[in-house]
């Protein structure tokens, strides 16, 4: 009787282990820094993120921290996506205006053998740490979609979608356009 119970327990453990390996989740965090110097205006034009937080800090540069979670894909696929600029930003300064934009404007859906041809779930959370010399209004700029979840002088939180569930394809197209101004 004890041997039979042991076998059932062993089989159950193997099944649970196998199912967790099949839905493996890869995670990575990618950082970039940008110098605003004397820019009085800082524009954000971000596409394809699940959530964006803009926080003030005492630093004199902008730090981006992109936390990526990808299900049903190998580490090599996530490495490929990172190396090919999927989560990278373009930064330019013209006069008193600095602009930070997503490098890849059209994020293709990810499908792998592990996902059996289905779309892999991808969650991307961006945190931008901005010098506390800058401020923002609570409204989204024209051309934005998504929802503002929190707005205070220290934190602005935006999420793709609305109260309804969005598909991965829809999420990859959501845009946050936001202008920050140097405080007086």
In short:
With 184 residues, the chain is an alpha+beta fold. The chain contains three helices and eleven strands.
Average pLDDT number:
87
List segments where confidence is low: pLDDT < 50 over at least 5 consecutive residues.
14-22
Largest sheet: 6 strands, mixed
Total number of helices: 3
Beta strand count: 11
In total, the number of domains comes to 1
Q: Shape, please? A: elongated
Structural class: alpha+beta
Helix content: 10-25%
Strand order of the largest sheet: 1-4-7-3-10-9
Question: Beta fraction of the residues?
Answer: 35-45%
Give the C-alpha Rg: 21 Å
How far is it from the N-terminal to the C-terminal residue, by CA? 79 Å
Succession of helices and strands: HEEEEHEEEEEEHE
Oligomer category: single chain
Describe this structure in words.
The protein has 184 residues and is α+β, with helices and mostly antiparallel strands. The chain has one domain (25-182). The protein contains 3 helices and 11 strands; from the N terminus they run H-E-E-E-E-H-E-E-E-E-E-E-H-E. The chain has helices at 2-22, 75-83, 168-171, and strands spanning 25-35, 41-47, 51-57, 61-71, 89-94, 97-102, 122-131, 134-135, 147-151, 155-159, 175-182. It has a 6-stranded mixed sheet with strand order 1-4-7-3-10-9, covered by helices on one side. It has a 5-stranded mixed sheet with strand order 5-6-2-11-8, with no helix packed on it. A hairpin with a 3-residue loop joins strand 9 (147-151) and strand 10. It is elongated and about 75 Å long. 23% of the residues are buried. The model is unreliable at 14-22 (pLDDT under 50).
């Amino acid at each position: 009787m004890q041997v039979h119970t042991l076998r059932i327990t062993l089989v159950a453990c193997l099944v649970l282990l196998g199912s967790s390996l099949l839905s493996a989740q890869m995670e990575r965090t990618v950082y970039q820094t940008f110098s605003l110097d004397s820019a009085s205006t800082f524009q954000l034009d971000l596409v394809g993120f699940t959530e964006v937080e803009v926080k003030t800090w005492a630093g004199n540069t902008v730090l981006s921290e992109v936390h990526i979670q990808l299900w049903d894909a190998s580490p090599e696929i996530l490495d490929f996506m990172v190396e090919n600029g999927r989560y990278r930003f373009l930064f330019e300064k013209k006069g008193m205006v600095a602009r930070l934009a997503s490098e890849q404007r059209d994020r293709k859906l990810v499908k792998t053998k592990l996902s059996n041809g289905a779309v892999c779930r991808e969650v991307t959370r961006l945190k931008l740490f901005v010098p506390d010399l800058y401020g923002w209004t609570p409204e989204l700029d024209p051309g934005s979609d998504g929802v503002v979840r929190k707005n205070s002088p220290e934190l602005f939180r935006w999420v793709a979608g609305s109260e309804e569930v969005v598909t991965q394809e829809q999420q990859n197209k959501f845009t946050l356009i936001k202008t920050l101004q140097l405080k007086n």
